[in-house]
Structures are given as structure tokens and as C-alpha cells.
Task: structure prediction
Amino acid sequence: MTIRFLAALTACVIATTGVSITSVQQTHFNQVLSQMGATVVTCPTVVTNVDVCATYTGSPDLAMKSWDLYANWTSKVSTTAEHSAPWKQGGTSNDIYSAAFRLNDGSIYAVSLGLINGKTNILIATSSTQASAPAPTSSGIAGSPSSLVNDQAAPTRVGSLRLAVGGLATYGLTGTVKEFIQRKVKVDASGKETPNGTNKVTFLPNGSVASYILTDVSGKVTASSINTYVDGRIIERKYLNNNITVNMKYDYDATGNLISRTEYDSNGTKTLVTRYESKPNGYISSEYGASGDATRRTFVVQDAAGNELDEETLDKSVVGSRTITTFENGVKTRQVITIGTSLKLEFMYENGRVKSAATTAMGSLASMANKLNSSNVYRYEQPDGKGNFLKVIKGSEKISFGEKAFIPEDIEYNDIQYY
Result:
């Protein structure tokens, strides 16, 4: 830690009353820091009004998300905490981030952090009374999902509806498509094509998905979805996957914003609730299982028109799992899926269509890299003159006799009908 950083960080740390740290607070800090993978260190003598110091190898952005995630995760901490004041920027160079949290025993603590020498330094101060975050010179972190965590009044938004209804972009389509049928085939080393199932999707005139039906090579339906809309808004979705039935119901506020989606099994038992929270620059969705504990959170940044700019999902089912999606003018350009510390999938897009896909084995799966590591490219052929393609080939590129050869592996033959 440098003197400059410590001085600024200490100045930004939320004011405390100088009370002694309690055993409940200490346990909470230790548990959160342990789950994050942070290391507790001895606080330098120049630091005042700080109870705990730690270092973290991830970025400040990830540190904030990780703290939010684990501090309120009931199965990971003995005493949970929620935001008392949101993350704000401060410091002379706007490089320090601070927030206040209220433990469920009523006590308050503050976390301030910043990057020094490649590591995120974390300072924690405790208080028995209400604390407030320092006034930042700019609000939030521009272009980062964590900038959604603020308490400003949110305007009426409709961008969150996309998450519920899907649409043409999900399938890389443009125009007024009415019906889309994908006939899939596998290609062996000799070039022989073998049928591998069919996917049929129907769309409403506004581009929302009305239904889809997935069948195997025998024609048996393996998955299906039927969506019901009222006044252009989805209100119900009936989903079938390998004989498992899920009914989803959607609720909206008075201004038309999607606020929740509730899932029920075939017996009518509630199994999952997803809540949507509108923010001035996007929205946050949080999934809650039967236990009531949040299992997944998605942060979406949007522009004023509702176009997506950035999206990040944190999944508790596998610690460390994240999905980061970037957009340009509302069109997806890249997606990276990290499954714990074992596997990473990276997709690159062009004009909203997947262009390449790579799988990389890491950590405990590194020894299986020769089996799991893969890299695929996608080719789009037979344009129909309306911006869509009737043939999509997924394959791999290999060097043969000094030249790059494309080896087809899967092909989709598309039949597209328009309104």
C-alpha cells in the first residue's frame, strides 16, 4: 500500500464512531473475504479508524460485485448484510470506491477499496450507527454493471422486456420473420451428412418469439415453448424440456415495466422467482430459489434508447461462475462464460451472429485440455436477399500442407418465411 493511496482511502472510508469491532462483524468479514479469495493483512500504522485490511488479486470492479454477492449469501455467511449506501467513487483521482452495509443485527460497516501495484486493497471500518457513503466526484463506474447499484430514481424503461420475450436477435435474424425452421445435420470426416433434429420457431409481427418446438431425428418433441401475450407483453410461457414441464408467469408494474417472473412445476409448486429492478442506466435481475436465497444476478447496462451496452451474470451454483456479454449499438459482439475455475467459453459475434467459439479447460480440468479445448468458426451461406442466410456451417480451421483448411462439423439448413 502506498502513502498516497492510504491517505485517500482513509479519507474516503465511511465515518465511524470508533466503536470496537464485534465478534459478529469479525466473523462476517472473515467469511466474505474467504469466499472472495482475499487475504487479510496487518493494517499499516498510518491507517486510522479502520478495523480490517485485506488484499485481493481481482479488479476493484470484481471485488465490489463479489462483496455484494457473498455479504448477502445466507449459506456462505453466518450474518448477512445489505447495502446501507451504494458503491460510489471518490478520491482525488476517482480511483477509490466505497459503500456502506447494514448487518441484520443492525450494525453498520463500510468498505473502501482501490487498485495498487496490481492488487485491490480493501479497508473495512465498523460503526454502531447509520453510515453514509462519501460523496463521489462522479457517480458510478462508467460502462460497468456495478454502476447499476445506485438509488437514483429510475425512469420508465421497457428494455427489460427483452429478457422475457427473446426475439429475432436471439437467432441472428433480421426483418419481419414469421417462421424459422432449422434442419440440423452432423458431418463426418468423409463429408457424409446425418440428420440431427429440427428447431421450429414462430414470431409475432413485432419480432417477439411466439413459440418454438425442438424435435430429435425421429421427430419426437424434446423441448417446446408456447408464449402468451397481452397488449404486446408476455404474461405466460409454458415450457417443456425432456418431459419436465415449467409454467412461467410474468408481472408488471403500473408503468409497464417487467418486475418479476415466477416459475411453477407441473404440480403448481413455485420453484423459482426472478425479480427485475429498473435502474437509470439499465436493470438488475435476481433469481431466488425455493429456499429464498438469491442464486443468480444479472446486471444489464443500457443506453437511453434501451439498447444493451454491457451485461454480466454472477451464478452462485458454481462459485466463480460469470457470464460477460458486450454489445455495440445494441448488437452482441462478444460473450465470455467462465464456469468456476475449470472452464471458459468465448464467443465472438459479427452483425449479431456468432462468428467463432472457443472452449478452454482451466484449473482442475487443465489435464483434460486435449479433450476439452476446441475452437470453431461459423460460415453463413446462401443469403436470401432479406438479410438472413439459408445455410450455416460450424467447423474448424486446420493447417494442412501450409494452407488453412475449413473442416465442416455441423450444418443448419434454414427455411425462413416472412410476413
The helical segments are 3-12, 23-36, 60-71, 161-165, 369-372. Residues 1-18, 128-165 have pLDDT under 50 and may be disordered. Residues 23-36 form the longest helix (14 residues). Residues 171 and 223 are 17 Å apart (CA to CA).
